[in-house]
Design a protein that fits this description.
Elements (H helix, E strand, L loop, with lengths): L3 E13 L4 H10 L3 E14 L4 E6 L5 H9 L6 E6 L8 H6 L1 E5 L11 H11 L4 H15 L14 H13 L5 E5 L7 H18 L2 E5 L3 H7 L2 E6 L2 E7 H8 L2 E9 L14 E6 L3 E7 L5 H8 L4 E9 L2 H14 L1
Parallel strand pairs: 3-7, 3-8, 5-6, 6-7
Antiparallel strand pairs: 1-2, 1-4, 8-9, 10-12, 10-13, 11-12
């Protein structure tokens, strides 16, 4: 049985249809007109225990709305949600015992207290046994490098320091499921790497199920095995990350350093099936598909019009693939 089950989940909001001007302001105040906005449109997915899932999409795709329904903060308009056998919005206290959550820059730490005091409050809230609390605290302090932060007031921490403490607080009670909504936003690369490594280590050690929503696709690349991709409240892909890349990321980007370039080089571009992304006097950036052409054939053709000094190739990254997918979706 899946630890999270979502069937035909839908969330619709009523929002005020704003009218312009002073007269419109008073009309909105006295007799507002409402219109419906559907944030989540009948989505379906199951998540098994121990999975690392990237729940991604553009702003307004419905990611945060879904997470809020899974945590019980929002009640679905229709459909079914089961988290560890519970309906979250009906059994919020029981559900909260089994989950942890980080929502962007919203803190669960007490602003004026030292970090360690917040941890002690969380220990009492979740009734964490003393030996378990000490074991987790020691381990998390080590991995997330919290030693010098525990006695500092939360308000005196930098963004990166605070987020490391937030992550530790979220995992302190050994939750079965953790929702991470933009956990690395605004952080430097070293803090991000620390947090990613921590998530993978805890998942491997305790089979903690993690649902990660983020705009930093390096988080997904480094942490997740599965992707659920949303667009306008609907799931448009659900499957393995590698399969996603294999299916949608067949193209390759190549940077060529060239010299003695002939002006008629453009004759080489269209007929043999590659796209020019950028061209300067000494550089060509091209995109092509593995299925359609080889780099050897491209170089043979281009070398008729210039001298190729060097070449650097890279497979399409997740961010590039998503840009292409959304470009295609929005053209329809």
């Amino acid at each position: 049985m899946a630890i999270i089950e979502v069937k035909n989940l839908r969330k619709t909001y009523k929002i005020i249809e704003k009218q312009e001007g002073l007269l419109g302001y008073f009309k909105n105040l006295i007799s507002p007109k409402y219109k419906e906005f559907t944030a989540v449109r009948g989505i379906n997915f199951n998540i098994e225990e121990g999975e690392l899932v990237g729940y991604i999409g553009e702003n307004g795709a419905g990611k945060s709305t879904t997470i809020k329904m899974l945590t019980g903060l929002l009640t679905p308009t229709s459909g079914k949600v089961l988290v560890n056998g519970l309906i979250p919005n009906e059994k919020r206290i029981d559900n909260n015992k089994n989950i942890g959550a980080v929502f962007g820059q919203k803190t669960q730490l007490w602003w004026d207290l030292p970090v360690i005091e917040s941890f002690r409050v969380i220990k009492k809230m979740y009734k964490i046994p003393e030996n378990e609390y000490r074991k987790n605290l020691k381990r998390f302090t080590q991995i997330l490098e919290l030693e010098d932060l525990l006695d500092k007031q939360v308000k005196n921490l930098s963004l990166g320091q605070k987020m490391r403490c937030e992550i530790a607080a979220t995992f302190l009670h050994n939750p079965k499921i953790v929702y991470l909504d933009e956990p690395t936003i605004g952080l430097d690369i070293f803090v991000k790497e620390n947090i990613r490594r921590f998530i993978k280590d805890i998942n491997k050690e305790k089979k903690t199920t993690v649902i990660l929503t983020t705009h930093d696709l390096k988080d997904i690349e480094d942490v997740c095995d599965r992707i659920i991709l949303l667009d306008k409240g609907q799931v448009i892909y659900d499957g393995e990350k590698q399969k996603f890349k294999d299916t949608y990321g067949k193209y390759v980007i190549a940077n060529l350093i060239v010299s003695s370039k002939d002006k008629s080089i453009h004759k080489a571009f269209k007929p043999i099936g590659f796209e020019i992304l950028e061209e300067t006097e000494n550089k060509l950036t091209i995109k092509f598909s593995h299925d359609e052409i080889t780099i050897v054939k491209i170089m043979n053709e281009i070398s008729k019009y210039c001298i190729i000094e060097d070449i650097h190739m890279k497979e399409a990254e997740l961010e590039d693939i998503l840009k292409e997918i959304y470009k295609g979706v929005h053209k329809k």
